[in-house]
């Protein structure tokens, strides 16, 4: 099972995630590309640190929403969004190459991730941008989402993703961050959820139902409360359960 986290999400003098500590735990790093977070110097440093540890570097493109941390929907045209995603992929690719590594996958961020997951014009824009940039790059998608089918139809490899620390509805969708139950912060509870996800293929919804989820990668949000403790608990629990933790994209 692949374990990923969002990294490089500071900006200038402000830091949001403990990138060094998380890079000791995860196998794939979703690195900010500047549109929701991430200045060039810090992104270059994260790429270099990932390269030293053998962690896969992925592009984490966003809507152009630096103030809102990429968590607000932006009503961009399809052509504008294609160009914005391409711009971010190119920027991270250059920094990754300079750091001795490369972009190995793409995972949209925040509101773009959620909107693209439903397919539609913005899902099509993300797929088109990845295909035009490098059709060999895997696209990380919400497990069971319309985007998974859309990307595969366009010839892209997909990596189905589940979330360790996010609440799920009975339909398998993520609980809106503004609602109760959106985040799970207790390390032991998160670890137990992930082990069940990997070994049984289910996740407990906020309604108390077991929802089937098939995933190749599990995300721990780097900006969540106690992210490092959660990530460590998840990895330890997976290894204790006999699950090999390795990147799904290398």
UniProtKB/TrEMBL annotation:
UniProt-listed InterPro entries: Glyco_hydro/deAcase_b/a-brl, LamB/YcsF/PxpA-like
Catalytic activity annotation: 5-oxo-L-proline + ATP + 2 H2O = L-glutamate + ADP + phosphate + H(+)
GO molecular function list: 5-oxoprolinase (ATP-hydrolyzing) activity; ATP binding
Single GO BP term: carbohydrate metabolic process
Keywords from the UniProt entry: ATP-binding, Hydrolase, Nucleotide-binding
Record-listed E.C. numbers: 3.5.2.9
Described function: Catalyzes the cleavage of 5-oxoproline to form L-glutamate coupled to the hydrolysis of ATP to ADP and inorganic phosphate.
Family, per entry: Belongs to the LamB/PxpA family.
Subunit structure: Forms a complex composed of PxpA, PxpB and PxpC.
Protein name (Swiss-Prot/TrEMBL): 5-oxoprolinase subunit A
Lineage: Bacteria, Bacillati, Actinomycetota, Actinomycetes, Kineosporiales
